[in-house]
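Sample entry (317 residues):
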Amino acid sequence: MEIVFLGTSSGVPTRSRNVSSLAVRLKQRGEIWLFDCGEGTQHQLLQSDLKVGRIRRIFITHMHGDHVFGLMGLLASIGLAGAPDRIDLYGPPQLETYLDACARYSHTHLHYPITVHKHKPGVIYEDEDYRVLCDRLDHRIPAYGYRLEERDRPGRFDVAKAQALGIPPGPIYGQLKQGQQVTLADGRVIQGQDLCGDPQPGRKFVYCTDTIYCENAVRLSQGADVLIHEATFSHRDANLAQQRLHSTSTMAAQVALAAGVKQLFMTHFSPRYAPGNDLDLRDLLNEARAIFPQTDLAYDFLTYEVPKPAKAMAISG
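Predicted structure, serialized as tokens:
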């Protein structure tokens, strides 16, 4: 599970930051899941090592332009690059209407199937490996945060122990690896869990933007390995955050602390904190770390591999 930040500015792009988009690369299945798609996202993808043909699911938090203006262009380009089997989109009820209007007035015809799934709190997608939940956040228009969970995996299968018990190799090993009960030809009943180590907990990633501090964000983030949370404003501009229903750096840190997450990345920064101004992003980082030390600033093309339990994390950019 690898996270790639494609846009970390709020409202408008800057010379060094594009507007909101984030990719999660699921390496084992060769897929990319996109979270938000602000204007210029496909240009960011072209500058990365991500392949647009690998995109299978796109999750939109809300309908503000800096989170959705790049979507129709990206979908059209994906079709021209070679139509995928399908793409599933998740977002507010207005998302489908917006895309229909874009396609109609631009005379764009997508030659591959798209399914739009409308937001509702709770589980919005699940399969044998992953599930995705969402919940309402507190913003000026309906906005949702997402939680991507990797399912717990069985512990390591003890092949030597299985061989010592005289269990013949083959499909039976696969059943036992999954912790299933198996009856052998000689009548013995073998419990798969007796041949496996402790289960490996699945990793958990949470994405919350746009929102002011709210309890739903805390609940959604409980125990996450990594939380991506907006920090549009400095704590010293908390009055602006209250007016516009965005978070400060300290609000993001408070969510991380209350939820007991392992790592916080702040994103969605106001351009007012550009280098050379009275306040810059180092000030926001210091404010957050005073509350939650495991905080870092996101920047465009930062790559973060969510660590498996008991393994060190890797950051590059």
